[in-house]
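Protein Record: Sequence and Backbone Structure Tokens
======================================================
Tokens: labelled as protein backbone structure tokens, with as many entries as the chain has residues.
Question of interest: how does this chain fold, as expressed in backbone structure tokens?

___
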Amino acid sequence: MLSSSSQNFKQQTPQYHTAVLFYYIQLIIKSDFLHKLASERSDLMKKENLTTALIFIVGTELIGALSALLSGGNFSVFYQSLHQPPLAPPGWLFPVMWAILYALMGFSAYQIYISDDAQKHKALLLYFIQLAVNFSWSIVFFRFQSLLGAVFVILLLLVLVFLMILQFGKIRKSAGWLNLPYLAWVAFATYLTIGIYRLN
């Protein structure tokens, strides 16, 4: 009996085996197995992407908060004691603006991080360098009250942000556009820093 079945199997043509294979493939497709698998994978990717985006955004916000903490905490008192140039905003506006800009900055870095571009590591290195310079400005200005030092730091930051935007824009245009408000604010902060230095 076994020998007879074996002979029958050997006698079956390759076309027969191919037909059987396609039959089972059709059963798998019609069973929604692949659809469910793809859906689960998509949901997992969405969760992973959301987590990664939050890490970049919250991480950038925390760096800004740590800079403020290490700056001494007497921002308003010191800022109001200085002779200020025209268009100088009230002290409360700075933390509000920086909170928004750090969020935009972090999300733009996340966009670069998930890209497949070969230059993304260079762009992210530039991002973290400018973030380190950004971190140091408040400490130099408020904690050490070095107005001239703050001028040099803000000028360096302005150049680095401009270069970062160019690099980000080459990889993903939206990542570059997201940092234009940051560039505008740093340019305004440069004007304020130089004006405060000259007036004091």
